[in-house]
Amino acid sequence: MVHALDFDPANVPAYDSFLTTLVSSGSSTALSDAMEYLAVLRRYRCSPGEKFLRAALAAHLEARELRSAVVLWDDFVLRRGLVPDKEMYNTMIMLQGTLGHAEVTVKYLDDMAIYGVFPDTDTYNVVLKLLLKGRKLREASAIFKEMVKNECWPNEANCSLALSVFLDTRDWETGIKVWKCMAANSLPPLEEGGNMLVSKLKDEMLPEACKYAEDMIDQGIKLSSSTLAKLRHSLGKVKKGDIHDRLLAKWKAH
Fold first, then answer.
1. pLDDT in tens, 64-74
2. Residues of the chain with pLDDT under 70
């Protein structure tokens, strides 16, 4: 088939169509066959275009084949000057992150602006999730701040995960920022998140725990009786039972 197309560097659309169809065929050998044909074309200074790259990267993601995908990316983007789109970036981010290279996803995110491609909420959420699950917490904190600055909000799963991870690692500052973002923008899970925050803060940041408990009550976010009981215990140990009594009265009034 490649020979039927002839070897003409200007015949990019034909090579693009052929290899895109091949790599997307669903055959068990589709990816390897497409890469073999690509190698033949390269020897004659011929190349497919962006449709093939997009489909080939998706096939690499499905096959969990990172090394060949990076080679392909470097060849098309860095050497040939093809301008990648957001879908291509998202595929590479997913591939790097799911195969244990979460920190590398930040580089792709940073590189997007060079090509005039800007991450959206979905892209940010993919990167944030990968960083949190990969325990790259410094990078995750930076990405969270960046996405919020750009008014891209974490989804429900990431709100819950980020709050849990940052509080469990005693990064109180970032954990509180996550909660403030959730509360200010009504991002779920508000009830679960607020009770988690108060419960985690009560042992080391009791005044803040009481403040956010009161904020929850004022904002109509349900503070559970078990969370209030934990506060009562912590406040009792420092002889601040009156604070609990005030919170309890307000809680009952709501």
1. 999 999 999 99
2. 1-5
Cα–Cα dist 63/71, whole Å: 15
pLDDT at site 4: 53
Cα torsion through 28, 33, 35, 41, rounded to 10: -160
- Tabulate helix, strand, coil % of the chain (nearest 5): 75, 0, 25
Give dist(CA 64, CA 79) in Å, integer: 24
As annotated, the residues of the chain forming the CATH 1.25.40.10 domain(s) are: 86-188
Rounded Cα distance, 210 and 205, in Å: 9
In terms of Cα–Cα distance, which of 107, 100, 98, 102 is closest to 73?
Answer: 107
Give the residue from 78, 52, 32 showing the smallest Cα distance to 70. 78
What is the per-residue pLDDT for 134?
Answer: 93
- What the block records as the tokens of 25 is 């065929």
Pick 86-188's CATH classification: 3.40.1060.10, 1.20.1090.10, 1.25.40.10, 3.40.30.10.
1.25.40.10
Question: Quick one: pLDDT at residue 52?
Answer: 98
Supply φ then ψ for residue 6, to 5 degrees. 70, 170
